[in-house]
Amino acid sequence: MNQTTQRPHWSGRIGFILAAAGSAIGLGNIWKFPYITGTNGGGAFVLVYLACVLLIGLPIIIAEIHLGRESQANAVSAFEILHKKGTPWRAVGLLGTLSAFLILSFYSVVGGWVLDFEMRSLLNEFATHDTEAIKGFLDSLFASPWRLVAWHTVFMALTVGIIFGGLTKGIERWNKILMPALFVLLIALLGYSFFLAGFQEALAFIFKPDFTKLTWESTLEAVGQSFFTLSLGMGAMLTYGSYLPKGKSLVGTALSIAFLDTLVALIAGIIVFSVVFTYGQTPGAGPALIFVNLPVLFKSIPGGYFVSVAFFLLVAFAALTSAISILEVVVAFITERFNIANRKTVTAITGSIAWLLGILCALSFNVLKDVKLLGRFTLFDTFDQLTSTITLPLGGLFIALFFGWILGPKAVALAIGTNKGPIAWLILWSCRIAAPVAVAIVLYFGVRGVVSVG
Ligand code: TRP
């Protein structure tokens, strides 16, 4: 694998942290976290999710970045370089690459919804329609196959376009501008929601656990969400890690990524539920949640026009910085594996495949809405559920086992600079036992529940 010597690298540690946080922070935080917190009953779900981020997510971020950084290779070759050629562990990378197509396809469709709402913001449609009409905007989008597909196409084209720009001039540069901007805007919106009547109720909903609402399936969703939101289990952190120079400890880096990601999800949740409770909406509205209630907020606050234009723009950017990290997994794998010099061709072809799959997802809201698996999952739901609740946790489980048992204490020393002391011990044993066992139990009972209810 001689091309590893010419690998591009991030310009520095901050560049990497922002890109990795850019991958982690996306629709998973702003769209998915609030809506699944709503459908799973609030506090208890959030608590399980936070525990997963700390106990399972953190050690696996370190393990995954380490695999990339030590091998300086894509998600499949990394296992071969660190173990041996033809090792069965490379299946983990292949599973990740396949998942990347599925995730990117539905992700791009939701990215398209955001763009549609950005257009509505620009046209000032929230101010000029009444609340009932605003609530119908998403449904009217769902009813229009061509509009859904058109926006999905735009989103996918933007994703491909940024990757064309390469690592530092494309991926890194955009992340450095957009992530801080998103942060500022979220804090400002949090400030607005503080003055809403529903603010206290929102805090109680998110932070007061009611364990009677917790089921195996919601625990599985919490585990799946912790993988999805941290971009884990599919080789995205591995691939980004492969552009890091070896050396420094990964502990601070992993903590920063997990902290920023969790903060954004919680802030998004507080904003969304403050609006939900202020205007008597239902928390369990599902995927439509942020598209229904936030416009209602924008309609009623001073300067709402600019806030909504900025908000959907930044969500679109957050989604883009995540989408590029998903596509990059596939592009890095194919260019390196088949020794293809022209990255752009590979990007265009793989982007097109994901785009075609995405059309199926887009049409599952209208033309294909009666195509259902297990009697209740549309194609869109299937791609989403299959990846976040099955392939990502499974990928994470095997990454943890590979790191903990095959590579062992030596890898811990390379990843964090030492294999002695409590932190090294925690990382090692979490990867060896705690994380795999927890994921395996939840996967077993969760999947059994989903299948039997279906
Ligand atoms: N983490 C992103 C989000 O929360 C989505 C994402 C980007 C992702 N890369 C990934 C999910 C890799 C799983 C695997 O929106």
End-to-end span in angstroms? 46 Å
The ordered H/E elements are HHHHHHHHHHHHHHHHHHHH
Largest sheet: none
Q: Characterize the overall form.
A: globular
| Count of helical regions | 20
* Overall SS class: mainly alpha
User: On the 0-100 scale, what is the average pLDDT?
Assistant: 93
- Rg computed from alpha carbons, rounded to a whole number of angstroms: 21 Å
Bound molecules: tryptophan
What is the strand tally? 0
Low-confidence stretches: 1-5
Percent of sequence in beta strands: under 5%
The amount of helix comes to: over 70%
Keywords:
binds tryptophan; 454 residues; single chain; 20 helices; 77% helix; mainly alpha
Describe this structure in words.
The chain is an all-alpha fold and 454 residues long. The protein is 77% helix and 0% strand. It contains 20 helices and no strands. The chain has helices at 13-24, 27-39, 43-71, 77-82, 90-122, 125-128, 131-135, 137-142, 145-164, 167-194, 199-207, 216-229, 236-241, 251-278, 289-300, 304-337, 343-363, 379-407, 409-416, 422-453. The N and C termini lie far apart (46 Å). The relative contact order is 0.19. Mean pLDDT is 93; it is low at 1-5. The structure holds tryptophan. Tryptophan is lined by residues 23-24, 26-29, 103, 228-229, 231, 234, 236, 322, 325-326, 392.
